Amino acid sequence: MHNRNEMNRHREDELDPEDAWKANPNPWARWDEAHDAFRKSSFVKGQGEAGHSPPVVKRSKHSFRNQFLWKLAIASLLFAGIWAMFRQDSEWAMQGRAIVTQALEDEIDFAAAAAWYKDHFAGAPSFIPIFRNDPGPAVGADGTVKLPVVAPLANGVLVRTFAELLDGVELAGASEAEVVAVETGRVLVLSEQANGGSTVVVQHANGRVTVYGKLAQTEVQENDWVEAGDPIGRLPKADGAEPSLLYFAVKQNDKYIDPAGVIPLD
């Protein structure tokens, strides 16, 4: 009976959490009122219990050590089991080794991880570059921008190589096919050839220049800004089944180089 009365008295002394919050809805406001940084006054005070401090929950000094020892024991058992598995030639050991080896050699399926993240968190983690769906230009490790590079003539066929011409190549394309800029740059020169064709010279970044010759018509003017894939002209109209030809050259730092080494020629 005596124990029951003590229990009832203890329950009456305990303050309901909701009542405690209503009594002091902003407990952090009393933080600066403490006289000692390690002995704070009660931040949640009950009605009529202004000087009463909440009970202190004592934690075991050895809890961290016990958890560490348990984890160490489990890790040691796992290591010992795997080591023993690779030291034996029994059937179960062979199967276990195959599972461990496969788990270590298989690559992570980032596409599946991105799909799972999108299903559970409403969107792929765009802060990870491999999941980023950004069509913009890539940036190299040195901070330089890697602009796209395209072929000057779609479905063009290489008919004369750089080894033959020594200053460019010759591509065969369909009659009046469209010729496009291979990289972003500025139209430097627009000139007429003696045979009636036109030549367009485009200045690009990093000291690179591209030359487009034997054009029947042009669609740019000097100082025009073009990006990769923008039309700059058309091939002449072919006679019968004969293809039209495009002269294409690349100069790097005022020196002709093989276009096939830097441009994706079809």
UniProtKB/TrEMBL annotation:
The keyword Transmembrane helix applies. The keyword Glycosyltransferase does not apply. Residues 167-259 form the M23ase beta-sheet core domain. CDD domains: M23_peptidase. Keywords: Membrane, Signal, Transmembrane, Transmembrane helix. Gene3D superfamilies: Glucose Permease (Domain IIA). PANTHER family: L-ALA--D-GLU ENDOPEPTIDASE, PEPTIDASE-RELATED. This is M23 family metallopeptidase. The lineage of its organism: Bacteria, Bacillati, Bacillota, Bacilli, Bacillales.
